[in-house]
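Reference record:
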Amino acid sequence: MIAFFEIKSKDIQVDLWRFKLALNPNHPVYLGHFPQKPIAPGAMLTEMVKEIVELEIGRKLKMTEAKNIKFLNMVLPENASNLELNLVVSQLEIIHVKAEAKINQEIYFKISATFV
């Protein structure tokens, strides 16, 4: 399977997690979204947040709630080789995540989600 993203670096500080990511411009999702002007699908960006949390806590998760999902700018794969993803993570029985992704200090998307 071809990876949608690559983690270039990470800084985990208790409940504040910071990642530098690069999106893979050759991922097959861009063939359908959209061939003439590839844009990272919101569902893939949301899944990316879930996968990163899963990697860090070491187990599979199920998203039970997502709110305040905001796609503020189009994430173009050719411009997303230096995507900053900042997460505030609260880990109790239920995991609460507030994530914000930026490129060059400009916010591209935000999400607040709950996982079990």
